[in-house]
Model the fold of this input.
Amino acid sequence: MKYTIIGDWYEVWDLADSFAVVAEGADYEEAKANAAAAVLEAFPWRAEEDGETPETLWGGDNGAYVVAAFLGDLGAQTVDAASFRLIA
Done:
């Protein structure tokens, strides 16, 4: 199944650096793990400089948190409706 996950970085106090990830997984947890890998691929310095991994990104000290998650691919609607960066 596809999920659209909206994330935001811990160190940003508004939603200016929010991002949307469309990820596949058998369930939400698997999609969230796949989304973390896509985020680190799109932002490699998060792994290189901050030491984040797909396992620590969501909730990590320098990582991100999930703002919202939706079942399905809402990538086109998300980009049209807001100023998110679409990943994946």
Summary: The first helix runs from residue 28 to 42.
